[in-house]
Amino acid sequence: xxxxxxxxxxxxxxxxxxxxxxxxxxxxxxxxxxxxxxxxxxxxxxxxxxxxxxxxxxxxxxxxxxxxxxxxxxxxxxxxxxxxxxxxxxxxxxxxxxxxxxxxxxxxxxxxxxxxxxxxxxxxxxxxxxxxxxxxxxxxxxxxxxxxxxxxxxxxx
Length: 157
Hints:
- By secondary structure, the protein is of the alpha+beta class.
- It has two domains: 24-122, rbstp2171 (2-Layer Sandwich); 124-157.
- It is built from six helices and four strands, in the order H-E-E-H-H-E-E-H-H-H.
- It has helices spanning 2-6, 51-66, 70-81, 94-101, 104-117, 125-152; strands at 29-34, 42-47, 84-86, 89-90.
- It has a four-stranded antiparallel sheet with strand order 1-2-3-4, with helices on one face.
- The model has no long low-confidence stretch (mean pLDDT 80).
């Protein structure tokens, strides 16, 4: 109590400011270098998805992986590439993508980099592993129910 009135005699040391909380482990933007027939080295800026856009992209990934619908593939690809830019120009239209990326290999590289930067695995392993887990659970439950019926009926159906 006396310390509060007279002080401790020690100089006061200010407390350090807390670091701002980061939303992601990585920066909000990243860069990718690609080759283009028009320019030797092109720097692509990858942007982090907004929360809702990222959630929707993750949700729609499975449909994109399984679908044979060309329109769905184009829409999903455009939605992902819109989060990338070259020299400040967003890759948000087919015309911009054709002009700035030139080759399909660059489209694939940028698409995969955008998805990886946003923590979305495009291989589909996560999605299909979950499906197999559900299938296994369903099979086990069905087998247990049938086995229980068999035991209760004394081996007779």
